[in-house]
Amino acid sequence: MASLDSIEQDLPRLVHEAQQLDKMAVSRLISLFEDDRLGTAELRSQALGLLDSRPEPTSGTILGLTGTPGSGKSSLLSRITVDLLAAHSSLSIAVLAVDPSSQVSGGALLGDRTRMRYLPSENRLFFRSQASQTDLGGLGPSSFQVCRLLTRLFDCVMIETVGIGQSEADIRHLADRVYLVLQPLGGDEVQFLKAGIIEIPHAFILNKSDEPTALTSYHHLRSSLWLARPFESEDLPIFQTSALTGVGLSELEAEMLGQIQQPGGSGLTTREAYFFDRWVHQEWGRAGGRYLASQLGGSAAFVQQSGGYEAAQAGFSSIFG
Ligand SMILES: Nc1nc2c(ncn2[C@@H]2O[C@H](COP(=O)(O)OP(=O)(O)O)[C@@H](O)[C@H]2O)c(=O)[nH]1
Ligand SMILES: [Mg+2]
Question: What is the assigned CATH class of domain 61-261?
Fold first, then answer.
């Protein structure tokens, strides 16, 4: 990692190049947003300031794809991104894969088909894998940080994450829209109902619809939804897709594009309080969390009082550290 001084001197140029979606510049800035060394918060704050001072700042939409390993998230993303970019010449997409097997999914995403159609020189598609912060593929404060950067550069940030444990709640806080990717299970109705999981998503993707049990699984999922979320089940879309044959992808892509084109972009700043609290717990454990809650008026109040996320980090570090 470069010294902080050299990044500080380079920052305006780096930000400028990142705005042109230069892959090297985007990568270097991401490293800054993943860096938890003291002194980096000020640099992040400067970078965000430069990005936000543009006449028309980008405010990308965050779409989350979550689901158990093997359900086809990476395969879907590799097709969806390429299709969307081919159909919309001004669109840009960044993929953030937070996955215990992220190396594998990175390989899959940049696999043959993608590479053939999109040479590495295609700046509108950016891929980054991030080591997950828990063994279970959880998101964490640094995923949040990277999203703060990427939403200012790309029209859409697609996050791939394994939906287990804490990361279920995290993805709902981070993404503007969450898709749960499921696969047919040979008629095992109960799998779909696993506590907690079914309450999170805005929409469901039943992938591998080329498999023989897909239709039965679809009906099981529909009735599971009716039981688990009776008041909204009518409105919960289920996309039946196959990343293998391409069936159902155009419907899913149309709905994703609709999300991306909605005015307003990402509501990420309203989520700062949640991820600040997670950061405090990660850095200072439960003692830090208790101090934040009891002595500083809680996360939302403290972030606001401090004048933003970076200032709150610096402030908390000097009080508690
Ligand atoms: N039959 C079938 N296989 C698929 C489909 N989508 C993905 N797969 C396969 O399922 C496995 C896991 O896919 P992957 O995209 O890595 O899943 P992830 O762990 O959710 O990212 C791979 O062997 C894929 O080739 C599909 O729609 N149909
Ligand atoms: Mg994957």
Answer: alpha beta
